[in-house]
Amino acid sequence: MFRKTLLTFLLCSFFASNVIAQEAEAPAKDEPLTLQQLLERVKEGRVTDNSANKKRERQFINERNKRKSMLDNVNRKIGIEEARSERLEATFNANELQLAELEGLLNERLGVFGELFGVVRQVSGETSAQVGSSIISGEITGRLPALDELAKSKGLPKIKELEGLWYALQLEMTAQGEVKTFTGQIVAPDGIAGAAEITRVGPFTAISDNRFLRYAG
Q1: How far apart are CA 98 and CA 93, in angstroms?
Q2: How far apart (Å, rounded) are the C-alpha atoms in residues 81 and 7?
Q3: Is the distance from CB of 139 to CB of 205 less than 8 angstroms?
Q4: Which stretches of the chain are DSSP H helices?
Q5: Is there a domain that residue 22 lies in?
Q6: The model's pTM
Q7: Fewer CB within 10 Å, N side or C side of the chain?
Q8: How far apart are CA 118 and CA 64, in angstroms?
Q9: In what order do the strands lie in the sheet with 179-187?
Q10: Based on the structure, what is the number of domains in the chain?
Q11: What is the dihedral of CA 42, 43, 45, 49, to 10 degrees?
């Protein structure tokens, strides 16, 4: 019986010393502790340990939730960028198909325009030669530069150039059916140049002061 009492007392003393060591704020006491006091100290130590454990558990849960939130945010951004990348890739592929179709259409039209350009250059050259030797140019001047430039051009003709060619052809045809009197420059047989009244009969002849004129270009 005495031996059991001694063991119980030693065990309680051991727990009491552990409780006192864990509580830094509790001052050491010189008086001996009763069994009831030891029991209270053990209970207080357990409460303190439980409180610390719960605090650490809350900190761990908060940290885990914070990291989970960060990970979810990163995954969300990755998902957004992946979706954006897929949209851009789809748009790029669609543009590639459209570009291929447009290139095919362009090549087809360039072939047609190439044939047209050959005709335009040929007509421009022929019209330039006709205008250059036509007596009508004695009245209507300044038509050759545009025709010569179009005839020698290496690129596709512009709309304005095509309109200029059409106008030059129409002007020449209209003037060929006219009889007009105008003031122009002539060179007399003695080599003296001067202004004179000239009557032009279509593209065939011109008369000034009852003398037939020859267009020298």
Answers
A1: 9
A2: 71
A3: no
A4: 2-22, 35-133, 144-152, 159-176
A5: no
A6: 0.47
A7: N
A8: 79
A9: 179-187, 193-201, 205-208, 211-213
A10: 1
A11: 130
Q: Are strands 205-208 and 211-213 parallel, antiparallel or unpaired?
A: antiparallel
**C-alpha distances out from residue 153 to 83, 124, 143, 208, Å:** 51, 10, 16, 39
Give the rounded percent of residues in the chain with a pLDDT score beyond 70. 76
91 belongs to a structural domain:
no
**Ramachandran sector of residue 210 (left: φ over 0; alpha: ψ -120 to 50; beta: rest):** left
User: Within a domain: residue 203?
Assistant: yes
Judge whether 216 lies within some domain: yes
Hey, CA dihedral for 123, 124, 126, 130, is it positive or negative?
positive
Give the domain range for residue 183. 177-217
Q: What's the rounded Cα separation, in Å, for the pair 192 and 63?
A: 110
- Per-residue b or e along 147-171, where b marks 16 or more CB atoms closer than 10 Å to that residue's CB: bbebbeeeeebeeebeebbeebbee
